[in-house]
């Protein structure tokens, strides 16, 4: 008796992700997850461009993690060219980064994860059956987008962020307005925690290596060191010792591995590694959700995202308070100190650790770029999860199996970002 | 793109979609960039919306807040969406259409937020009852959908004409345009 599950999520013309699982006589015969290699192309696109353009080009890799890409890009350039951003720049970047984490996590939890649990096929029937839930998500998303608009000059694609600082500065009144809206959003955040606590999360355990940034005095999103739950700790420049990208016969994308066959990045990895630096209310939410490190249930990555929603709202308020106390001043961009240069910038974007590595020539133009996105780093771990999960659910009806495996994929919040975004139209 | 402080609550929202890193995929962005440089009627807001997927509903939620100046209803009357579109036309062809005139083929199962496309965003907005009365599309047939920072020559050549037409639409309203032919090269 054999069961074959193929889930094709065709993403238009370029790129696709497939789950292929085949079980025969209770034995797992085939198990793979294919995602096309995402931003490899931009190595070619950046080559020859002036360093000032890199963040603007790379922010357009992703409409959801635009600030994340831009920040990693800027940090790579700044470390290459000896640029030291000011404290004000550091705070402003942190604030807009929090906005993006909020935006992405809210969208993921409400639009992708919740429908699976609430018995609907997508968020669209959810909008009819639970409009208040969807409107809440949009309200939170709007606030998150407005943080980016106020600080970085645009809802998506942080146009005001530049090498060495900002080209636009928020006004006091705008920051105060954001602050009061963030405080008001606490009701929505609490409702999100409550919703999350009520969901029947699948039971699953698979220990793996959790990899993330770390910092001693804050929950790390920008800069720091690389740390793993198996005890490794490295400066950012040595990221390749962790990622070890290698080709896998069956997959079009490279896989990564460190001390085990795979590792995981993302909210769960950050939660496991950096729990101590979470805001107290985020820790409280974690307790409500039954989470404490080390969590080894992949499905709970989305629950860890909810904990981060709490953290980012509270930390954003604190950052605004700091900015208001200092008073935001227009500042010139911090200067370039050397050329040519090579630099690595690493950020924790919503889905996990993102690495940009640039080589910049004497004329200020990029001669090379390397980028490793979180979803690629998770591929081997996802396959490991499939191999562990399938035997546990093999006796379920095939539709239930399929849903369970889709939920497992969705738990990673994968970013298949290279899809083409073109309308498909048929004229009657 | 347009200064929200001057437009206030818009009556017309024009959104351009796409990713400018994929050549003609970014046609909608290029279109609104051109449009925003022209003289626009009052209460028209023009924005580059990128590839927001479900986030389209967030744009509309903001734009459909009740207008205190009106006795009832919302201020947003009209939504214009500009995007590259596979319409089985020769590359560079653009067309104006309403949702009733076409079948938008939505993406099926969604695993990544990037797969939530414009159709999904519209469906969500519809389910939440935040679509304005009038929803118009301007689609342009792409030639090139690969990595690249430039539009193809066919799209680049016909884009200004499409933008001119959108401008006419904005200044004259719907009456004048109901008789217009749709297909333009």
Structure description:
The complex is a heterodimer of chains A (428) and B (185). Chain A is of the alpha+beta class and 428 residues long. Helix content of chain A is 45%, strand content 18%. Chain A has 14 helices and 13 strands. In chain A, strands 8-7-6-9 form a 4-stranded mixed sheet. A 3-stranded antiparallel sheet of chain A has the order 1-2-3, with helices on one face. In chain A, strand 4 and strand 5 form a beta hairpin. In chain A, helix 6 runs antiparallel to helix 7. Chain A is globular. The N and C termini of chain A lie far apart (45 Å). About 2% of the residues of chain A have low confidence. With 185 residues, chain B is α/β, with parallel strands linked by helices. Helix content of chain B is 30%, strand content 20%. A 5-stranded mixed sheet of chain B has the order 2-1-3-6-4, covered by helices on one side. In chain B, strand 1, helix 2 and strand 2 form a beta-alpha-beta unit. In chain B, helix 2 packs across helix 5 and helix 3 crosses helix 4. The longest helix of chain B has 20 residues. Chain B starts with a helix and ends in an 8-residue tail after the last helix. Classes of the chains: A alpha+beta (428), B alpha/beta (185). At the A-B interface, strand 1, helix 1, helix 4, helix 5 and helix 6 of A face helix 3, strand 3, strand 5 and helix 4 of B.
């Amino acid at each position: 008796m054999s069961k074959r599950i193929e889930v094709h999520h065709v993403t238009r013309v370029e790129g696709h992700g497939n789950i292929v699982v085949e079980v025969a006589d209770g034995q797992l015969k085939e198990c793979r997850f294919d995602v096309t290699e995402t931003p490899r192309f931009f190595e070619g696109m950046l080559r020859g461009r002036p360093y000032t353009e890199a963040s603007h080009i790379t922010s357009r890799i992703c409409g959801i993690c635009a600030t994340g890409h831009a920040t990693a890009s800027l940090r790579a350039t700044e470390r290459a060219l000896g640029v030291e951003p000011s404290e004000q720049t550091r705070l402003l970047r942190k604030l807009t980064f929090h906005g993006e984490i909020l935006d992405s996590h809210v969208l993921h939890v409400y639009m992708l994860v919740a429908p699976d649990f609430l018995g609907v096929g997508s968020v669209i029937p959810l909008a009819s059956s639970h409009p208040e839930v969807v409107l809440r998500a949009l309200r939170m998303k709007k606030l998150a987008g407005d943080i980016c608009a106020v600080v970085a000059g645009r809802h998506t694609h942080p146009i005001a962020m530049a090498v060495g600082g900002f080209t636009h500065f928020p006004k006091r009144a705008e920051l105060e307005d954001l602050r009061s809206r963030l405080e008001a959003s606490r009701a929505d955040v609490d409702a999100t925690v409550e919703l999350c606590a009520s969901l029947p999360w699948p039971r699953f355990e698979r220990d793996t290596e959790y990899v993330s940034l770390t910092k001693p005095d804050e929950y790390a999103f920008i800069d720091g060191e690389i740390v793993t739950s198996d005890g490794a700790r490295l400066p950012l420049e040595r990221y390749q010792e962790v990622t070890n990208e290698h080709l896998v016969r069956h997959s079009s994308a490279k896989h990564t591995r460190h001390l085990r066959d795979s590792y995981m990045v993302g909210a769960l990895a950050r939660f496991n590694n950096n729990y101590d630096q979470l805001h107290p209310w985020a820790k409280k939410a974690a307790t409500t959700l039954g989470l404490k490190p080390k969590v080894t249930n992949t499905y709970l990555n989305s629950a860890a995202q909810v904990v981060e929603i709490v953290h980012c709202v509270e930390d954003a308020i604190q950052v605004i308070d700091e900015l208001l106390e200092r008073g935001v001043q227009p500042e010139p961009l911090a200067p370039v100190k050397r050329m040519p240069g090579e630099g690595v910038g690493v950020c924790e974007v919503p889905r996990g650790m993102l690495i940009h590595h640039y080589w910049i020539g004497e004329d200020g133009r990029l001669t090379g770029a390397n980028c490793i996105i979180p979803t690629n780093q998770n591929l081997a771990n996802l396959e490991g999860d499939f191999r562990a999960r399938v035997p546990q659910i093999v006796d379920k009806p095939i539709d239930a199996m399929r849903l369970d495996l889709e939920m497992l994929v969705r738990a990673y919040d994968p970013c298949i970002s290279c899809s083409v975004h073109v309308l498909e139209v048929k004229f009657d | 793109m347009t200064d929200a402080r001057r437009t206030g609550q818009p009556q017309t929202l024009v959104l351009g979609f796409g990713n400018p890193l994929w050549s003609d995929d970014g046609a909608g962005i290029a279109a609104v960039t051109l449009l925003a440089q022209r003289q626009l009627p009052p209460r028209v807001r023009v924005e580059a919306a990128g590839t927001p997927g479900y986030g389209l509903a967030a744009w509309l939620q903001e734009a459909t807040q009740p207008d205190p100046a009106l006795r009832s209803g919302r201020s947003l009357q009209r939504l214009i969406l500009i995007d590259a579109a596979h319409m089985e036309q020769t590359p560079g062809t653009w067309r104006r259409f309403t949702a009733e005139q076409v079948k938008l083929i939505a993406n099926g199962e969604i695993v990544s937020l990037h797969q939530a496309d414009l159709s999904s965003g519209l469906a969500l907005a519809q389910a939440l009852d935040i679509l304005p009365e009038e929803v118009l599309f301007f689609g342009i047939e792409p030639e090139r959908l690969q990595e690249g920072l430039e539009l193809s020559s066919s799209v680049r050549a016909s884009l200004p004409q499409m933008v001119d037409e959108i401008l006419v639409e904005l200044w004259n309203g719907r009456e004048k345009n109901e008789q217009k032919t749709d297909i333009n090269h």
